[in-house]
């Protein structure tokens, strides 16, 4: 937001995978058959334009958080890199999955940043209770405290990876991360398996 805070969400307790964990603002999967299109060509990835991934992000910001596209124009979204990870869900307790069960994720994530030009609490949101239990705007120091193992909070594996490897460097140089290609890495797929 305008105060350089990050919007976090706590995933809904009813989610099949990673319920009730804290994580990044939102996640999406690029879908075929969407308008605008969400599948990026190799040349779009190589250039870092990634309009497909950005379109998917705009769609999911609306679906999960009720954030209107006018508050996050697609051209304000910055692609930074990609992450390929695999993680077992150690927390889910559903009739179809015992604790430490077989559900999990094996994904390629496109890491996107956007800065809304207003203070977070003034950003109109209509949170989808099927997706999210809570939201919180945090500074970098607040996030570090929240992620401290003694906090008792649970975190999505993908967000832990991003925070530990990249986030604080990007956040500490946010203007460059958003307005230059200093941190854009189109050639690497960071693998965490």
TrEMBL record:
<dbReference type="GO" id="GO:0005737">
    <property type="term" value="C:cytoplasm"/>
</dbReference>
<dbReference type="InterPro" id="IPR015797">
    <property type="entry name" value="NUDIX_hydrolase-like_dom_sf"/>
</dbReference>
<dbReference type="GO" id="GO:0004452">
    <property type="term" value="F:isopentenyl-diphosphate delta-isomerase activity"/>
</dbReference>
<keyword id="KW-0413">Isomerase</keyword>
<dbReference type="GO" id="GO:0009240">
    <property type="term" value="P:isopentenyl diphosphate biosynthetic process"/>
</dbReference>
<comment type="similarity">
    <text>Belongs to the IPP isomerase type 1 family.</text>
</comment>
<feature type="domain" description="Nudix hydrolase">
    <location>
        <begin position="1"/>
        <end position="161"/>
    </location>
</feature>
<dbReference type="InterPro" id="IPR000086">
    <property type="entry name" value="NUDIX_hydrolase_dom"/>
</dbReference>
<dbReference type="InterPro" id="IPR011876">
    <property type="entry name" value="IsopentenylPP_isomerase_typ1"/>
</dbReference>
<comment type="function">
    <text>Catalyzes the 1,3-allylic rearrangement of the homoallylic substrate isopentenyl (IPP) to its highly electrophilic allylic isomer, dimethylallyl diphosphate (DMAPP).</text>
</comment>
<keyword id="KW-0414">Isoprene biosynthesis</keyword>
<dbReference type="GO" id="GO:0050992">
    <property type="term" value="P:dimethylallyl diphosphate biosynthetic process"/>
</dbReference>
<dbReference type="Pfam" id="PF00293">
    <property type="entry name" value="NUDIX"/>
</dbReference>
<comment type="pathway">
    <text>Isoprenoid biosynthesis; dimethylallyl diphosphate biosynthesis; dimethylallyl diphosphate from isopentenyl diphosphate: step 1/1.</text>
</comment>
<protein>
    <recommendedName>
        <fullName>isopentenyl-diphosphate Delta-isomerase</fullName>
        <ecNumber>5.3.3.2</ecNumber>
    </recommendedName>
</protein>
């Amino acid at each position: 937001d305008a105060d350089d805070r990050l919007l976090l969400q706590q995933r809904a307790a009813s989610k099949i995978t990673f319920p009730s964990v804290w994580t990044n603002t939102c996640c999406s999967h690029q879908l075929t058959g969407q308008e605008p299109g969400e599948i990026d060509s190799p040349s779009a990835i190589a250039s870092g334009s990634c309009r497909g991934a950005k379109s998917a992000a705009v769609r999911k910001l609306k679906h999960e958080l009720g954030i209107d596209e006018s508050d996050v124009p697609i051209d304000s979204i910055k692609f930074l890199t990609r992450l390929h990870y695999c993680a077992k869900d150690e927390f889910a307790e559903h009739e179809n999955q015992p604790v430490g069960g077989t559900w999990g994720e094996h994904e390629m994530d496109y890491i996107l940043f956007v800065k809304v030009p207003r203070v977070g609490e003034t950003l109109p949101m209509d949170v989808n209770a099927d997706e999210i239990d809570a939201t919180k705007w945090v500074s970098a120091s607040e996030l570090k405290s929240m992620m401290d193992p003694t906090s008792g909070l649970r975190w999505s594996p993908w967000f832990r990876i991003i925070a530990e490897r990249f986030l604080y460097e990007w956040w500490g140089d946010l203007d460059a991360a958003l307005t230059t290609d200093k941190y854009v890495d189109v050639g690497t797929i960071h693998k965490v398996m």
